[in-house]
Amino acid sequence: MDRKATPTSHSYFSQRLRLHYLDWGNEDAPPLMLVHGNRDHCHNWDWVAEALRDEYHIVAPDFRGHGDSAWVYGSGYSHSEYVYDLAQLIHQQQLAPLNIIAHSLGGGVALRYAGVYPENINRMIVIEGAGGGWMSTDRPVHLRMKDWIESTRKVAGRLPKRYPTLEDAYERMHEANAHLRDDQARHLTRHGSDQNEDGTYSWKFDNYTHVMSPFDMTHEQTMELWQRIEAPLLLVSGSESWFGKGARQDPASAFRNARHVTVADAGHWVHHDQLDEFLRLTRDFFNN
Length: 288
Hints:
Layout: E1 8-14, E2 17-23, E3 31-35, H1 46-52, E4 57-61, H2 79-92, E5 98-103, H3 105-116, E6 121-127, H4 141-156, H5 166-176, H6 182-192, E7 193-195, E8 201-203, H7 219-226, E9 233-238, H8 242-245, E10 258-263, H9 270-273, H10 275-287
Helix pairs in contact: 2-3, 3-7, 5-6
């Protein structure tokens, strides 16, 4: 009899929004949260979850405006709201202390959560999520506000892209990441799109997630939060991504207890592009 943990869909509420997450069962095991990136969804982690489901109680949320979670109406999306969403899920399901693996936007959000609640984190792996997300103070406030107003107005007139068939959506998915295997691209497309009433397909994410808040934490404030993180951190980059290729300071230097590794032959989605190597790094880090 197959006793492997299997995922079930659940909902929780955050600022009155109904948000979705997958729970992979195995509740007696140590909790592990998997946090996706911008315009992705919880099923981006299915291959990682399948490999680790017998070792951990895995929870994988959809951020607001992503996947099967509700969209925001009447306000925008910011890191602060995403942090609140994580805080609510961890609080409501009593998951702390826990391990976290987070990617891109999810990494930046998870690092802020860890800075606010350092006691709730055992260990954390962040894939290309320590490279930004803070508010720039280089431009005058009136220009930041003007940019936000005009970019929001532009998004308001932008209709969701419609693909004639699921195959067309799959082609776009594969175009965005040539490292993806055919089965991976099809899996992500199937879970990341909805069929419209006219039979076409559109991505599930809200176009308004393209608009960032004009006011958020500054670089200095973000560094202050990062310095509060006591748990060991593993920062992961792909050698072929913009993050991995960029000539910049070692990201681990911004933290008290972090190590940075670059995975060869991988782009921004390291956990897709080099799954076996990523799982090896994950197990070595979590078990030592």
